[in-house]
Amino acid sequence: MACGSKSQWEFGSELFSPAEIARKAETVSELTLQLKRQIEGNFIDRRVAGEVSNYRLQSSGHAYFVLKDPGAQLSCVLFRGQGGAGRAALKEGAQVVLSGDLTVYEVRGHYQLRVSDVEVAGVGALQAAFERLKARLAAEGLFDSNRKRMIPKFPVQIGLVTSPTGAAIRDVLHVLQRRFSPMILLEPVRVQGSSAASEIAAAIGRLNRYATQGGRVDLILVTRGGGSIEDLWCFNEECVARAIASSVVPVISAVGHEIDFTIADFAADLRAATPSAAAEILSEQYVASRGFVHESGNRLLAAVEAELRLAEEDLNRLRHRLLRMHPRRRLEERAQRLDEAIEALKQALLRNLKERRRDLAGRHQRLSAVRPAVRLRGWRLSLDGVIQRLSLLPAAELERQRRALKALEARLRLLSPQSVLDRGYSLTFDATTGKLVRDSIVVGVGTLLRTRLARGVVTSVVTETKKLES
């Protein structure tokens, strides 16, 4: 129902006075139809933000849910095929921005939003934009590791891109001054707001031009302190990522806290978790070198002292060796050895003389105890007996050997085949093979045999064989 003149109201397609309307009743369908026309004609292509509640996905593919905020709620319907890429974000509790037309569902008599597009609201939208840009730049190879430049270990002059009044610059300078003091080229920029991204990109460009024109910039540190994703968003802008990637000077990105990641972190040659961590990375080699230099002095002093001790030991050895090799020393040693040899020779001569005297006394004593003539006669008799035995030994041995030979000849004759034949026996051979025949079964009728007798040989043919029982 729309507001008209004070005295008339529009009802359907007719005009009635208030008095006439009071007397005329309208149906629910008629009233609902009027509301439908008013709502659907005036609430077209609206964008509404809120939280998804009571989300129900039907088997038909249509989705029904409520969009609410702390003060009100709105029924929504998303038909199959509608909603775009953001449809997947619809879930219980999701913060979304819905686009669509407000309609009236006459059957139930309530209005609802007919959704045509779904966007993730707030941080979710920023995160989606972050992921899209990250994927696109990664596909271009902007984040490839083979593009990363080496960070110098001992930077002398550092380009610092940050806000001159923020906490980040205080943290970085505090750490650097405490650990070592490099030269700082400050490029002051905004690190938050709509113009911050372009200022950061321009500052990186100025430092690169300074480096390529003969100035010294060992590396660039792009940094700021922590904040919300909205606060850090300038470091997610494409212009900043491309400025970092195209820099000829190595770039370190240190944005936010340890859990914060920005597009600048992926494009940079090195990402530090915090501004203080970046300053520690820049100075760690100086700190390590300071300790190395200090320890090197101690090691050098210890090495020199050790060399001096070795040299002193060598000098002492040479001094003692020189003393041992001095001609007077050698002459004295030779004289001492000569004295010792003379004394040893004297002692040996005395011992030999004593031994010979004892031996001579013993021989004299034995000769005096035994008469030589008697012993000489005994030895002569023994010698005669031995000579006699030796003269008789060859003849007796020859006779013994002759008797043994005759005994062997007699035994050999007894064992000779000829002796067996002389006693009337014979030997029969197969005339073809020449083998001795020992059994009648090995020959058959017609076999040619040769029989040897004591004197002569007989050849015969087998006409019959017979095996004798034992």
Overall description:
Helix 4 (167-179) runs parallel beside helix 8 (275-325) and helix 5 (196-212) packs parallel to helix 6 (238-245). The protein has eleven helices and 15 strands. The chain has a five-stranded mixed beta barrel with strand order 3-4-5-7-6. A five-stranded parallel β-sheet has the order 9-8-10-11-12, sandwiched between helices. A three-stranded antiparallel β-sheet has the order 13-14-15, with no helix packed on it. It has 470 residues and is α/β, with parallel strands linked by helices. Mean pLDDT is 82; it is low at 1-9. It is elongated.
SSE layout and pairings?
Elements: E1 9-11, E2 14-16, H1 18-23, H2 28-42, E3 46-57, E4 63-69, E5 72-78, E6 95-105, E7 110-120, H3 123-139, E8 157-162, H4 167-179, E9 183-188, H5 196-212, E10 219-224, H6 238-245, E11 251-255, H7 263-267, E12 270-271, H8 275-325, H9 327-369, H10 372-415, H11 417-422, E13 427-430, E14 448-452, E15 457-461
Parallel strand pairs: 5-7, 8-9, 8-10, 10-11, 11-12
Antiparallel strand pairs: 1-2, 3-4, 3-6, 4-5, 6-7, 13-14, 14-15
Helix pairs in contact: 4-8, 5-6
